[in-house]
Design brief:
Order of helices and strands: HEHHEEH
Strand order of the largest sheet: 1-3-2
Shape: globular
Largest sheet: 3 strands, antiparallel
Distance between the termini: 49 Å
Helix content: 40-55%
Radius of gyration: 13 Å
Organism: Paraburkholderia atlantica
Strand content: 5-15%
Number of domains: 1
Protein name: Helix-turn-helix domain-containing protein
Oligomer: single chain
Amino acid sequence: MKTLVNRAPDALPSSVAQLGAMTIAQFCEIYHVSRVGLYKLRRHGLGPAELQLGRKVLITYAAAREWEARMTKRHTEAQAA
């Protein structure tokens, strides 16, 4: 069986990408963001939406794509200003 860990959300089959989620560590690895960097983004309200299941925090693939689009737009607007 093939593993889907460490693959970007867009590289996953659409049925899995829409329903799946990743851990904070997986998100950081996929997006090349340090854990500290992600926590700083979260503190400023710029992190991705999270899903908490008990003590485990997950980020859905849909939330990761939305975050990526939001950050890209923010970067583009900052460059234009």
